[in-house]
């Protein structure tokens, strides 16, 4: 059985691992404070690619109607979005 803190760490680690693989960086270089657009140079195409990768990696389907720009400001806000969508 996992507690909420463990589930949070696991989702955070999974999101960071997916991001690191996508941008060709080591996961240790990324944190919840990493900004997707300013630090990783994301654009709208990158966001779509990331969402597809996360759906595949995490087995979660995202509803495009729930997406908000604030969900993609930082890794931490993306993790919060993934948690909401995954029901974690």
Helices and strands, with pairings:
Blueprint: H1 4-23, H2 44-58, H3 75-86
Question: Key terms for this structure?
Answer:
3 helices; 88 residues; mainly alpha; globular
Structure notes:
There is one protein chain. The radius of gyration is 12 Å and the shape is globular. Helix 1 crosses helix 2 and helix 1 crosses helix 3. It has three helices and no strands. The model has no long low-confidence stretch (mean pLDDT about 90). It has about 90 residues and is mainly α. The two termini are about 15 Å apart. The longest helix has 20 residues.
Shape: globular
In N-to-C order, the SSE pattern is: HHH
Reported for the largest beta sheet, the result is:
none
Strand content: under 5%
Summed over residues and divided by their number, the pLDDT gives a mean of 88
Alpha-carbon distance between the termini?
13 Å
Structural class: mainly alpha
User: How many β-strand runs?
Assistant: 0
CA-atom Rg in angstroms? 12 Å
Helix content: 40-55%
Low-confidence stretches: none
- Per DSSP, the total helix count is 3
